[in-house]
Amino acid sequence: MTKGIPKHIAVIMDGNGRWANARHLPRAFGHRKGAEALRELLKSAIKIGIPYMTFYSFSSENWNRSESEINDIMGLLRRYLQSELATFHKAGIRLKVIGDRSRLAADIVRLIEDAEVQTCDNTKMTVVMALSYGGRQEIVEAAKAIARKVENGDLNSDEITETCFGQELYTSEIPDPDLLIRTSGEMRISNFLLWQLAYSEMVFVEKYWPDFSEKDLIQAIEEYQKRERRYGSAAETA
Ligand code: IPE
Ligand code: IPE
Ligand code: MG
């Protein structure tokens, strides 16, 4: 199954809360199960040979949740970064975190930086975690960076292209996602990778994230393989 494997799959891991609710458990249990599902799915991704995967872990809008839920998620994240680093490194995974770090606790930022530095030369797979991430905020930050270059005389406004704009995004060295998967039956983007998803194929899965398994990933890839990516050109059969 090497031919036709998407180079980059982005995932909106949604439905942890509803997974827990359905079992009369606190939402935190759902997040914990969600972290376990991610751990398992990464093993599958390596086995399948997916070069890049991006996981939406916490959005800029998720800061509006209750303090206790945010604390639960941040605690989980802290433990995840600590416990998974060695496994990531051993598996040849390079970790990259995108998002607004200024809102994260200092010790979490340090864990992220350490993990990024330690894994930066790994080549088997790149795992991007979107944390405190918002697509609009990312685009605004890129616009500011470009504006500063123009102000300083380093760039002429006529020279602003899609390529140079893309270079100011968090994802400058990551190819755009070929496939976006969202779990839990919701069919929206929720401020994820607004620029980068311009031509991604989208697969929406009914299952809640904690139940998403290797089988579901393979099914989503097979669905992707059936799609005809036209990028605005006329259909082959037309
Ligand atoms: C996704 O699950 C995880 C985060 C957004 C952090 P949710 O927490 O959104 O779960 P639902 O959508 O409420 O079920
Ligand atoms: C999107 O899920 C963010 C993550 C999965 C991290 P949300 O649950 O926050 O999105 P909405 O609120 O349903 O759009
Ligand atoms: Mg949700």
Automatic annotation (TrEMBL):
Pfam families associated with the record: Prenyltransf (PF01255)
One Gene Ontology MF term: ditrans,polycis-undecaprenyl-diphosphate synthase [(2E,6E)-farnesyl-diphosphate specific] activity
Co-factor binding details: Binds 2 magnesium ions per subunit.
Listed GO biological process terms: polyprenol biosynthetic process
Catalytic residue list: 14, 62
Catalytic class of the enzyme: transferase
Keywords of the record: Magnesium, Metal-binding, Transferase
Domain of life, source organism: Bacteria
Transferase found in the keyword field: yes
Cofactor list: Mg(2+)
GO cellular component, one term: cytosol
Its EC number(s): 2.5.1.-
Transmembrane segments annotated in the record for this chain: none
Matches recorded under HAMAP family: ISPT (MF_01139)
Family from the record: Belongs to the UPP synthase family.
UniProt xrefs under NCBIfam families: PRK14830.1 (NF011405), PRK14834.1 (NF011408), uppS (TIGR00055)
Function: Catalyzes the condensation of isopentenyl diphosphate (IPP) with allylic pyrophosphates generating different type of terpenoids.
Name of the protein in question: Isoprenyl transferase
Taxon lineage: Bacteria, Pseudomonadati, Pseudomonadota, Alphaproteobacteria, Rhodospirillales
